[in-house]
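For concreteness, we quote verbatim a single protein encoded this way:
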Amino acid sequence: MFNVKEDLKERALLVGLVRKSTDKEKELHELNELEALAKTAGAVPVEKIIQIRDKVDPAYFIGKGKAKTLYDIDVEIILFNESLSPSQIINLEELTQKKVLDRQDIILDIFAQHARTKSAKIEVELAQLNYNLTRLKGYGHELSRLGGGIGTRGPGEKKLEVDRRKIRKRIDHLKKELKKVERTREIQRSHRDGILTVAILGYTNSGKSTLLNAFTNANASVNDQLFVTLDPLTRKGITNKENRFLLIDTVGFIRGIPTQIMASFKSTLEEAIKANIRLIMVDISSEKFDEELKETVKVMEQLNIIEADNILVFNKVDRVVDSTFLNHLKRQNPDAVFISAKKKIGLNNLLDRIDDYKKRFRN
């Protein structure tokens, strides 16, 4: 329906909805996060709109009257902060004559862009198919409605026929391929000769790759973008007491990822599950770091690793100017480690904690 040139950046309007005006501040923060997602996907966010409405409109999400006003805004994409139903997307596209995407669409698009290895590509396709399978009702043949650009990368480009039987058959095939990858990784893990494994978990953009580089000179990609790391990256590290360990960077978490999408990344998350220790990274400079930590904990609960050996790591202390706030947080979290991976502040304290676990690991 809409043709997009791949070499041109698409302009995006970001849309949120709140039930009462007092929720606007929280929604604005989430729209700022959505803006970062859109930029990472390659779009140019130009405007944010927050609609106050006591309930979601079943046909147009924000209501037909408000949706009509979006027709005159000079953008190619209308990006919603919440999940839309297939019928809502179709109705909105017909009314606005623009491409309509939701938060899950943009996350999947970023996943598709950053998949490099065979396993990551399988996981991304599996996630997309599982997500699309839930949206078939009401979409009909509109799943291939887009001519290119954001929201169409990955298996969408193959124009898979919208048919439940064929999609499920493809999902079954991908699951078998993923099992082969998991078996290979299991063999690789068995050859680690009893070396302590340390996985880095956390909200996306919390500084996980920066810490990996600081400890191991891994030269992992560090950008102010979300979901740069999809494949687990493993490098050797050494503690202050010269104990060797393996440090594993994993995919970041974010609010609003559907369960079926996280399930597709089981192979990637397996490294976090199997690790001896997990470093739970928190960007202390984020205004909503407490909510980001809750999202990380929520995923860890799904993976049944919340009660395992974990070290809470508050990162980016160099960006905190309020020493009173920092001291209060330290009193609240006496077992946590406070660091700046970028400035290499507090890293020796974190290595000492790993040494403590290494001693117990030997016993």
In short: The chain has a mean pLDDT of 84. The longest helix spans residues 164-190. The CA atoms of residues 213 and 219 lie 6 Å apart.
